Amino acid sequence: MDCTYDDCANEATYSYMWAWGEEGACCDTHRIILEQTSQRLNRSVSFTSLAAPATMPPASSWDRPGLEKALRLATSELQEKIPLLGEAQMRVLELEELNKELTAELGKLRRQAFSPKETPDSAEPPHGSPSPPVKLQLKHSKERA
Ligand SMILES: [Zn+2]
Predict the structure, then answer these.
(1) Is residue 85 located within the same domain as residue 135?
(2) How far apart are CA 23 and CA 46, in angstroms?
(3) Taking a C-beta distance cutoff of 8 angstroms, is the pair 47, 12 a contact?
(4) Confidence tier at 84 by pLDDT (50, 70, 90)
(5) What are the angstrom distances between the C-alpha of 104 and each of 38, 91, 130?
(6) Is residue 25 within 8 Å of residue 4, measured between CB atoms?
(7) pLDDT of residue 24 exceeding 90
(8) Does pTM surpass 0.70?
(9) CA of 25 to the centre of ligand 1 (A)
(10) Domain of 97?
(11) Residue ranges in 5-131 assigned as alpha helix (H)
(12) How far apart are CA 145 and CA 117, in angstroms?
């Protein structure tokens, strides 16, 4: 059905009925014009949708294959990223392990540096007396021993 408003050639999307009984069919553009006319005249006009699916499809008629395709695409993209995530987690574990090793190594070096066998000067900066943390460390290791 075509829009019956003047000589409009658009496909009608609504049928309308004026308060006084006059009926017709109109396109989206002329629906707006009819509403404006109705406000100006202060007379009601009612619209009935002729082609609802063309404008706003109800949820039940959504493009299900299209949605499923989009879902599959998103899922495969996610699956592509999972190995990357695994790699990142492995790297974190490696770094944590390395951190543990380095911490242990540092502890060993500290104990060596402050052990009575070694000369403390070798680990000290070229000038100045031992700094407070060194004294603390010394005291600490003595307490432990
Ligand atoms: Zn029209």
Answers:
(1) yes
(2) 10
(3) no
(4) confident
(5) 85, 20, 23
(6) yes
(7) yes
(8) no
(9) 8
(10) 63-144
(11) 28-41, 52-55, 64-114
(12) 14
Determine the distance separating the centroid of ligand 1 and the alpha carbon of 8, expressed in angstroms: 5
Give 37 Cα–ligand 1 centroid separation in angstroms. 14
Can you read off the two tokens belonging to residue 83?
A: 């190995």
145 CA from centroid of ligand 1 (Å): 98
Main-chain dihedrals φ then ψ at residue 33, nearest 5 degrees: -65, -40
Distance CA 16, CA 34 (A): 9
> How far apart are the CA of 62 and the centre of ligand 1, in A?
28
Gap between the Cα atoms of 114 and 140, Å rounded: 11
Based on the domain organization, do 37 and 80 belong to the same domain?
A: no
Which of 9 and 134 is assigned the larger pLDDT?
Answer: 9
Distance 18 CA to ligand 1 centre (A): 16
Q: Measured in angstroms, how far is the CA atom of residue 48 from the centroid of ligand 1? A: 15
Q: How far is the CA of 104 from the centre of ligand 1 (A)?
A: 82
Residues 124, 69, single domain; the answer is: yes
CA distance 53 to 121: 87
Question: Please, what is the average pLDDT of the chain?
Answer: 81
Structure token pair of residue 59: 């949820």
